[in-house]
Amino acid sequence: MALTTCLFTILALLLASLTQNITGSHGAQNLGPWPLELKEVFKLFQIQFNRSYLNPAEYARRLDIFAQNLAKAQQLQEEDLGTAEFGVTPFSDLTEEEFGKIYGHWKADGSPSMGRKAGPEEAGKPLPSTCDWRNADGIISSIKNQGNCKCCWAMAAAGNIEALWGITYRQSVEVSVQELLDCGHCGDGCKGGFVWDAYITVLNNSGLASEKDYPFQGHTRAHMCLAKKFKKVAWIQDFIMLQENEQTIAWYLATQGPITVTINMKPLQHYRNGVFKATPTTCDPGVVNHSVLLVGFGKSKVEEGIQSASSASCCRPRPSTPYWILKNSWGDNWGEEVSRIHCKRGQGRTGPLPPSGLDVP
Question: Does 328 qualify as catalytic in the annotation?
Fold first, then answer.
């Protein structure tokens, strides 16, 4: 832990002086040579995130990508309207295309034939100023890491079921993501899928086994569905689709429990912490390609802001910003414990209903 903290500190100190040099002395397609300071930062990145490369040519290519990503992070930092910080992340040696192919999934297109649609009738009801299900014991399970398996849809659905099970029964449970991958209704395992595929699989299999009994492998095992082998530890009655109305979504979140949502993940490649308030150029609401669990909402305090590394002028003021709290599936070395993001009108918001005959308080 001490080493990780030290590395983050060193990276932060070095990056402040590097980003202006990168954007000023190298064009987007210029492949080097790079200054010694950048190579030292890249070395620290390799140590922190356990990166190694097959040959000098691949090292040089990844160093160039790393430098360009630092410049992109700096641009996001200057354009962001919230309090987010951008910089080195576990994905800083990946191109935008590689990041999308590895961690995104299919673009949501239409909705399933099963599942009820919920209308906006709750939009006018009063809401609390904040909601954070992380503060309730046994509701939000630990952060998972999907790795190179494009299963965010399955992890978001599993986290949703775990949360509602905890709310309903006051009992903590972790369900099997691997069962959703091996026994998928119409998803394609680690090649991507939709959250509603996961819910339909749970309905068809009358529940899910525990993560302990049926652990995550990080790959799909064809014709190896073991759903009948293990005892079911959680199940659902049905699922619903919420309308694209943020007041309705907030009401369901505050009164019923966490909800799965699908977002634009592109700018999150460089996100480190804070409230991310996107601009239309940095977060296109028409492109949604990553599923996460919505676990709360709130409003940031007015802050002085952060001085730009490329400007000696006074810091930009950071106004109060309403935000959603998201639980991601990229491991606990990315972002905060969960992300806070302000990017309106995602798609594919779904949520399971609790077991039949039980009401969620």
Answer: yes
194 Cβ neighbours under 8 A, 6+ residues apart: 105, 106, 108, 112, 153, 187, 291, 348
From CA 12, how far away is CA 19, in angstroms rounded?
11
Candidate list 289, 328, 342, 343, residue with the active-site label: 328
Neighbours of 286 (CB within 10 A): 8
Q: How many domains does the chain have?
A: 2
Q: Which of 131, 149, 151, 152 is catalytic?
A: 152
Q: Which of 26, 105, 185, 290 is catalytic?
A: 290
Same domain as 154, residue 63: no
Residues 73 and 126 grouped into a single domain: no
d(CA 257, CA 259): 7
Same domain, 110 and 37: no
* 161 touches 208 (CB < 8 A): yes
Domain that holds residue 40: 2-79
Q: Could you tell me if 172 and 134 are in contact, meaning their C-beta atoms sit under 8 angstroms apart?
A: no
The answer to whether residue 174 is domain-embedded is yes
290 is catalytic: yes
Whole-model pTM: value is 0.81
Task: Specify whether 219 is catalytic.
Answer: no
Q: Is 154 left (phi over 0), alpha (psi -120 to 50) or beta?
A: alpha
Can you tell me the distance from the alpha carbon of 258 to that of 194, in angstroms, rounded to the nearest whole number? 17
Query: Within a domain: residue 94?
Result: no
Check whether residue 55 and residue 198 sit in a common domain: no
For residues 267 and 282, what is the distance between their CA atoms, to the nearest angstrom?
A: 6
Per-residue pLDDT of the chain (361 residues; tens, 9 = 90+): 444 444 443 444 445 445 555 554 444 334 445 566 899 999 999 999 999 999 999 999 999 999 999 999 999 998 888 888 999 999 999 999 999 988 887 544 555 554 455 555 555 678 888 999 999 999 999 999 999 999 999 999 999 999 999 999 999 999 999 999 999 876 578 888 889 989 999 999 999 999 999 999 988 876 789 999 999 999 999 999 888 888 889 999 999 999 999 998 988 999 999 888 878 777 787 888 899 999 999 987 765 555 544 444 455 555 678 899 999 999 988 988 656 666 554 444 556 655 533 323 2
Please tell me the distance from the alpha carbon of residue 241 to that of residue 148, in angstroms, as a whole number.
28
